[in-house]
Design brief:
Layout (H helix, E strand, L loop, with lengths): L1 E2 L6 H10 L2 E6 L5 E7 L26 E6 L4 E6 L3 E6 L1
Antiparallel strand pairs: 1-6, 2-3, 2-6, 3-4, 4-5
């Protein structure tokens, strides 16, 4: 299922990724296009550990323009700018 970008918000992207794995196509800062298979599903995202500071929840200002996600292929946290998303395909 391909999701129309004209109607999806950051919260909508979070909702989709919380329940599904999706391929997100976006433009990176350097102008290249990237396709990332990612999710926010609790059954896939690893639990936070003391040895991985990126997995720790910290009190900080949330940048509403960036969405951190779990990259399935790289098994690591990655992020993309919400306004750079060109397509979302639920797998």
């Amino acid at each position: 299922m391909v999701i129309g970008l004209d109607s999806i918000t950051r919260d909508g992207m979070i909702s989709v990724l919380t329940f599904d794995v999706a391929e997100v196509t976006f433009t990176k800062k350097d102008g290249t296009e990237r396709l990332m298979k990612c999710t926010l599903q609790k059954s896939i995202v690893p639990a936070a550990t003391n040895t991985d500071p990126l997995s720790q929840k910290k009190v900080r200002e949330v940048n509403e323009q960036v969405l951190p996600v779990w990259d399935i292929d790289k098994s690591a946290w990655r992020s993309f700018r919400v306004d750079s998303v060109k397509g979302i395909k639920v797998l």
